[in-house]
From TrEMBL:
Entry's Gene Ontology molecular function annotations: calcium ion binding
Source organism of the structure: Paramecium octaurelia
Family matches, as PANTHER family: CALCYPHOSIN, CALCYPHOSINE LIKE
InterPro entries in the record: Ca-bind (IPR051581), EF_hand_dom (IPR002048)
PROSITE patterns: EF_HAND_2 (PS50222)
Keyword terms of this UniProt record: Calcium, Metal-binding, Repeat
Keyword Calcium: yes
Domain EF-hand: 22-57, 315-350
Source domain of life: Eukaryota
First and last residue of the signal peptide: none
Name this polypeptide is given: EF-hand domain-containing protein
Length: 631
């Protein structure tokens, strides 16, 4: 955790330096934007919003872990946080990292030999670093300080950084077995290994401990050569290995299917990365490609490196940068998603001018592919995200790429006489439509709330207004599709007022407390099944009977078997591949709500109830169920 905090603070400063030379002031203003009460503190949701605003997107569990470390009593004092970041205690970590590794490994392992306790107070800690400047030692101690002591294993983890897999298989080996594997002078390696094992207080090395030891050797510029069984599980494909791997067949198949095929494949790869370390084992890769109906043999991979290699060469980075900067009106490296969509001028696309497609068809094609590429729930687009999307387009149509991109992305400034808000073009901006900006992060002021309450559209009664609001919520939910509703369910951690509000907010559907009260029972809580029944309404009998018939005809209810047995056939404007990826993605996301290897009838019915709510056309729903399960 310690090294990830150092990396996080370093990345935060890097992002801010790209925005403004006045980094601290920029970060302070970002926090103050959400601190309407001027209390100098923010909660976790606001902290996450600030990070997204400055261009840092992290997994939910990592944000929770970071917030837990920085917070006090559930609140983060952002002035103290800024002071911490810019007084650079983390720079002390990098200072000692450099000192440890620049003089070889003797210094590091001699230092390990001095460690005889798990926790150190400042006086003890200072003695460990007596030869270094006191201000650096104090800064290092403060960085790891928890209740006036430092856990030394966190310090060691920070010094060695993120461990890279060794590529060799080890299963509880003792020191002699490890030394026998080493090719070269074994004397010094034995000494290092003895120091390491004494520090860890172990007699046998696990796979992860061997990988860590090998990683430390590499940090000290010792490229160890090991003799032993290569491990496909722990060896990611590195850049050099791609020369031995022919991805032409896979790339050609994806190009024929268009940009969404690349996008959907990457989503499946990321979905298979259970521990979110950016790597997939050979078994995980084969499983993804098998689900994708492509049986090519590929070893373990670094997901991002593999995807870039799959896309192939890209010789238009400067053009992409120019297009993005044209839309990035405040030059902060982020543009509102709504603005990106407004800048896309479908009528200028060559296919529209040649009357191959209508303007509506071209716009729908762009929105469909970019929505699939874009992170759900985010209102901003980073340069990295836009760049990767353009790379995907280039992979599919390299000859037409430059002409298409220049023609379709044009920033259109709003007419001067129109009244626009600053927030419209902020990283969390919205469309030009009049919008209720009250959220958990920025609630309406009492005056704004009073003015809004005085507005009575079309002379409706209070009851009619409430019914209209409920209808609006349902329409917004339908517009998110069954993928959006499943995403919302995964973001509801508890089924009470706050949990449900957070769920709706995760997909940008604004609801008031009155609406939520109507959903909850007298104890102000509700089960997931009852909640869905409330918002989705009754499952039509004939549709439910069709789904039950499909479930009875299943060859197996094992989740993995069901994914293999699903039959993808084209429907509406979706190809068979798009139907398959859509099913695998949503079915997997929904299944994660249930702790089981099998799919129960309740789960199966619930999945199709959500789909039924969004698919109003009876024929389309019937085809979706019958074609998928051969009913």
């Amino acid at each position: 955790m310690a090294e990830s905090r150092a990396q996080f603070e370093s990345e935060l400063k890097k992002r801010l330096s790209l925005k403004s030379p006045h980094e601290e002031q920029t970060l302070l203003k970002s926090f103050q934007y959400y601190d309407l009460k001027q209390s100098n503190v923010v909660n976790q949701q606001q902290f996450e919003a600030v990070l997204e605003k400055v261009g840092i997107t992290l997994p939910k569990d990592q944000i929770t872990s970071l917030f837990k470390y920085y917070q006090q009593n559930g609140q983060l004092n952002y002035k103290s946080f800024i002071q911490r970041v810019y007084q650079s205690p983390e720079s002390a970590v990098f200072y000692f990292q450099k000192k440890m590794w620049e003089n070889g490994l003797d210094l590091f392992f001699d230092w390990l030999e001095q460690l005889h306790s798990k926790e150190y107070n400042y006086a003890q800690f200072k003695y460990l670093f007596y030869q270094y400047p006191e201000e650096k030692v104090r800064a290092l101690f403060q960085y790891f300080n928890q209740n006036n002591v430092v856990r030394i294993d966190e310090v060691v983890e920070a010094f060695r950084g993120v461990v890279k897999p060794s590529g060799f298989k080890v299963d509880s080996f003792n020191i002699d077995q490890i030394i026998d594997m080493f090719k070269g002078d074994k004397t010094k390696i034995r000494k290092y290994l003895q120091s390491y094992m004494r520090f860890k207080n172990i007699k046998f090395l696990s796979q992860s401990q061997f990988d860590e030891f090998n990683h430390i050797l590499e940090l000290g510029n010792i490229k160890a050569q090991w003799l032993g069984e290569r491990s496909t599980i722990y060896t990611p494909i590195r850049k050099l290995d791609f020369n031995e791997l022919d991805l032409t067949e896979l790339r050609t198949a994806l190009v024929k299917k268009g940009p969404k095929a690349f996008i959907n494949l990457k989503k499946l790869l990321l979905q298979a990365d259970d521990d979110q370390d950016g790597y997939l084992t050979e078994k995980q890769v084969q499983k993804v490609l098998r689900d994708y109906r492509f049986p090519q043999q590929i070893g373990g991979v670094n997901i991002q490196d593999f995807f870039i290699e799959l896309l192939g060469a890209f010789d238009q980075p400067n053009l992409v940068k120019q297009i993005f900067e044209q839309m990035d009106i405040d030059m902060d490296g982020i543009i509102p998603y709504q603005l990106l969509k407004q800048c896309y001028q479908a009528r200028n696309h060559p296919d529209v001018k040649k009357q191959i497609k209508s303007e509506t068809e071209q716009l729908a094609e762009f929105l469909d592919s970019y929505d699939a590429h874009h992170k759900m729930g985010s209102k901003s687009v980073t340069f990295a995200e836009f760049y990767e999307y353009c790379h995907i387009l280039y992979a599919c149509q390299p000859d037409q790429f430059e002409n298409n991109l220049i023609n379709v992305f044009t920033y259109v400034r709003p007419p001067q006489q129109q009244t626009t808000s600053v927030a419209q073009y902020a990283p969390f901006g919205t469309s030009a439509e009049k919008t209720d900006y009250s959220t958990a992060l920025r609630p309406l002021s009492s005056q704004q709330g009073q003015r809004q309450q005085n507005i009575n559209p079309a002379g409706l009664t209070y009851a009619q207004q409430q019914l209209q609001k409920i209808d609006n919520v349902l329409e917004k939910l339908k517009s998110k599709g069954y993928r959006g509703i499943i995403y919302m369910l995964r973001n509801i951690t508890r089924y009470d007022a706050q949990g449900i509000y957070s769920g709706f907010n995760s997909i940008r559907v604004q609801v008031n407390q009155q609406y939520i009260k109507q959903i909850l029972n007298q104890k102000n809580e509700i089960s997931m099944a009852a909640f869905l029944e409330k918002i989705l309404g009754e499952f039509q009998n004939w549709r439910l009977n069709l789904v039950q018939m499909a479930f009875r005809k299943l060859q197996s209810t094992n989740f993995e078997d069901m994914k293999k047995n699903f039959l993808a056939r084209p429907r509406q404007k979706m190809s068979d591949d798009e139907v398959l990826i859509d099913f695998l993605d949503t079915f997997h996301s929904h299944h994660q709500l249930f702790n089981s290897n099998n799919v129960s009838q309740q789960e199966f019915e619930q999945y199709y109830h959500i789909m039924s709510f969004c698919v109003t056309d009876d024929r389309e729903f019937e085809v979706a169920v019958k074609s998928g399960w051969m009913v």
